[in-house]
Amino acid sequence: MLKIKKFSLVAAVLTLMSLGLANHAIADGDAQPSKTKQSNSTNMMLYINPMFYEHPVRMLHPYLDIWHLRGPMFEKVALKALNSSSQNSQTSAQICKSNVDVNLTISLEPYMFYNPQMRVFHAEVLATLYAGKLDAVASFKAKAQQQGELNNAADYYFKKAYAKAMQDIVKQLNNEIAAHPVTSSSLENNLCTLLATVPLTKKYFN
């Protein structure tokens, strides 16, 4: 009789333990989708005019003929800078597209110039910030220099110069967002289409 009671007690304990493990697994399963949903949120769009992808610029040099297509390289540098900012860690950026839940859209213009006498790459980035409408809420400008040779390894120096300029742009952007936070978002984002009608800033180097 005593053995039967012990067996019943052990069976009851094992049943309670299995129920507890099952509930714990269910709870974990319920929590996982919400984490995934949060990680996929995007609230900033990056716009770069198609001209920067279609028309390369010639780097000044008396003996070399090197052309630089700014768009593809600068896009990667800009996205990395915007998404890796520690101060702006809750803001994720992606290249511009319509009908996406977005708070802010930033338009960037990359410019590059090479001084062959000083062997210095000069990068300049012009930024314009929008919040749902084609009325700019802020604009920034950043310049950077990078010592280097204009040769087959010039891409390395282009990236370094762009990255330095983008660090300054991100710093200014973070200050603007901290001073004037934008909490509302819109799914009817058509700025990516409208920005194509905005003329580029005409920039010449002396």
Structural commentary:
This protein has helices at about 1-40, 50-55, 70-85, 155-180, 190-195; strands at about 45, 55-60, 65-70, 95, 105-115, 120-130, 135-145. A five-stranded mixed β-sheet has the order 4-1-5-6-7, with helices on one face. The longest helix is centred in the first third of the chain and has 38 residues, at about 1-40. The protein is elongated, with a radius of gyration of 27 Å. The termini are far apart. Helices cover about 40% and strands about 25% of the residues. By secondary structure, it is α/β, with parallel strands linked by helices.
Topology:
Elements: H1 2-39, E1 44-47, H2 51-54, E2 57-59, E3 66-68, H3 70-83, E4 93-95, E5 104-115, E6 120-130, E7 136-147, H4 154-179, H5 191-194
Parallel strand pairs: 1-4, 1-5
Antiparallel strand pairs: 2-3, 5-6, 6-7
Helix pairs in contact: 3-4
Q: Give me the Rg, rounded.
A: 27 Å
| Basic shape | elongated
Measured distance between first and last alpha carbons = 102 Å
Q: What does the main sheet amount to?
A: 5 strands, mixed
Please list the strands of the largest sheet in the order they lie side by side.
Answer: 4-1-5-6-7
Low-pLDDT residue spans:
1-19, 21-42
Give me the number of helical elements: 5
Q: What order do the SSEs take from the amino end to the carboxyl end, as H and E?
A: HEHEEHEEEEHH
